[in-house]
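Extended Data, panel c. Modelled sequence:
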Amino acid sequence: MIVKVKEGIKRLWPLLLVSGGVLLPDAGSNVVLFAIGITILVSAVSHVIRKILFPYVDLGEVYSKALETPAGAAGIFVSVTMILSVIIMSTCMLLK
């Protein structure tokens, strides 16, 4: 499991770098960077919690199995669209 976490960090290091904007001093020009950083950190924490709670669920395998049928592919499309819209909406609400 630790190897998978290390692989995830290697893959997501640009996002983690952007989320470092949370540590910048608060200034008017850094508000957007701060909101994006908070959103990325919350997403990363939720990902780690999912990995801890459900270590036996391999989403890559589920994804490849779902793409075998049109209904499965549609489900994946709707799910990914929903997750991205929630992330965008939470960032917009944080900026208000």
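The mean pLDDT is 77. This feature is highlighted in the accompanying rendering.
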